[in-house]
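Appendix B. Raw example, untouched.
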Amino acid sequence: MTARDTILTAVLAACPAGDPRSVAAAAAALLDDPDSSRPPLVAPGLPEAFTLKATALGASVERVAGMASVPEAAARYLERHGLAGLSLQPAPALTALDWTGIATHDGIAADEPAALGLALYGIAESGSLVVHSGPDAPILLSFLPLHHIVVLRESTLLPWLEDYAARLEAASVPRNAILITGPSGTTDIEGSYVRGAHGPGFLHVIITGTDGLPE
């Protein structure tokens, strides 16, 4: 008997009446009542829950009234970190803002100091950001800069990961879908934490409220 046979035999033996379909039935039952199998959010409000999770993972978060306040928030972040400017995602919701006083540019270099982009969704359960690639969303914007500034509209916050999965099923699947959970880091080398090993070393999220301005 091969190792594969041994494993499958054990799985079948653990199933009621040896029927693997019972496992599928049990999984379906969990999906019928998801609240019975998932932990509660860490705060009653979605922005608060997202912020607690994101900051616990090393990201910084600032909340502003609306999209019109994004350039000012970005300027404050750049000043704190001694940065002169940023690469700006060419999304209409961002390019339409007033960037006077901030040096912005198109494109993204391999050693880009800072870049600002727009999240499609935020997931309160894990403090994750969802980014889809597209004509106005270059995927390298999420990987190359040292400082990654992400605008997250409060209206796009989702409570749970499966809420995003449901939306993904209902929409056209993008070429790239990225879930960003905290800044990049690794402890692969001698157990020492190295920040920015596989992507941005700093993640800053600007959560915009709904102040009546176009988003």
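End of appendix B.
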